[in-house]
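Good morning,

Attaching, inline, the backbone tokens for the sequence recovery test we're adding to the shared suite. The designed sequence is right after.
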């Protein structure tokens, strides 16, 4: 009965996707751009370095929420076993006696992880919630309920809707997967927003990284124990993607795991380093903050140009974790320390 109900939901959603692609055919470039700009990787490679450079408190919250959102998204994707539109139409018996719907694939369609909940919607909802909340906290208490607050949350809603629409348009997600991702993303953001991360030690971050890794691997092992293949979606992507070169290892659940584990580990070591201890005693002006932001974001953009070795999946995933750990350490510890030193900023004595 549940399978029949989901088939009905998927079938109606496919009709909506086909209509959306037909009506907005001339806006395809815009849809691709939105989907790319709000890719979860930019929570780590753009929002984290930018916000941490300008406001260390908000930046740390962004890093925490990005890690927790991507971790929970990966776990839920394995558990919920969600289909993606571009392969579901070929696998389902719903269209066995009729013509397949005219659903197009694009270069950005072929995600390899399960479809539910949407990672784009979930991470965007989490990160932008923290951003909007930080922005509103800068307003006076009397003005929090005014028109500015309403405009800010309206923009937040529009961004979430645009991201979800782009993911549906390219046939990477069904609508209900984007809605679910948005709801869970807000819940994760509220949780992290109320979480006190100020006093966590280096040992705590290392154990936390280990916990993230072991919880994900335990989920994988339990699913395997019950006869399920958590990597089933990669096989579907390889089977039904229009072009093999559209399928990339950096969209697999394991790459996501290596990214958030590595980033959290490097972030924790950086936040508890002697460099950050020194920087915490330095008063950065707006100029030095902007210099930090330019350097940090620039380093992350250069990192995107690096091609990880593909001759071995073990080496690929290991390098992914190590590189994200190094990257977050540089963002958190080395860049602010370097800017403080070259700018001649002195640490305040106790």
């Amino acid at each position: 009965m549940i399978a029949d109900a989901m088939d009905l939901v998927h079938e109606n959603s496919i009709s909506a996707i086909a209509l959306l692609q037909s009506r907005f055919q001339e806006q395809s470039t815009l849809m691709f751009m939105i989907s790319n700009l709000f890719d979860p990787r930019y929570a780590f490679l753009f929002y984290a370095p930018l916000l941490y450079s300008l406001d260390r408190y908000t930046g740390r919250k962004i890093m925490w929420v990005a890690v927790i959102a991507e971790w929970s998204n990966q776990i839920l994707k394995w558990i919920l076993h969600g289909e993606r539109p571009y392969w579901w139409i070929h696998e389902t018996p719903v269209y066995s006696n009729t013509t397949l719907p005219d659903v197009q694939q694009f270069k950005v369609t072929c995600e390899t992880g399960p479809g539910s909940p949407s990672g784009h919607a979930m991470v965007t909802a989490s990160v932008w919630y923290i951003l909007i909340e930080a922005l509103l906290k800068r307003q006076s208490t009397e003005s929090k309920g005014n028109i500015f607050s309403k405009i800010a949350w309206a923009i937040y809603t529009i961004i979430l809707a645009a991201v979800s629409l782009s993911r549906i348009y390219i046939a990477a997600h069904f609508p209900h997967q984007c809605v679910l991702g948005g709801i869970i993303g807000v819940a994760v953001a509220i949780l992290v927003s109320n979480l006190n991360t100020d006093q966590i030690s280096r040992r705590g971050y290392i154990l936390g990284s280990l916990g993230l890794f072991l919880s994900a691997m335990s989920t994988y092992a339990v699913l395997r124990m019950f006869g399920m293949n958590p990597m089933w979606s990669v096989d579907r992507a390889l089977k039904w993607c229009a072009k093999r070169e559209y399928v990339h290892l950096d969209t697999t659940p394991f790459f996501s795991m290596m990214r958030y584990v590595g980033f959290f580990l490097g972030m924790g070591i950086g936040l508890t380093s002697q460099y950050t201890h020194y920087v915490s005693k330095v008063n950065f002006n707006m100029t030095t903050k902007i210099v930090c932001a330019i350097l940090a974001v620039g380093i992350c953009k250069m990192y995107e140009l690096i091609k990880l070795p593909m001759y071995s999946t073990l080496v690929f995933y290991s390098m992914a974790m190590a590189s994200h750990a190094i990257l977050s350490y540089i963002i958190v510890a080395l860049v602010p320390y370097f800017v403080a030193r070259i700018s001649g900023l002195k640490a305040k004595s106790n």
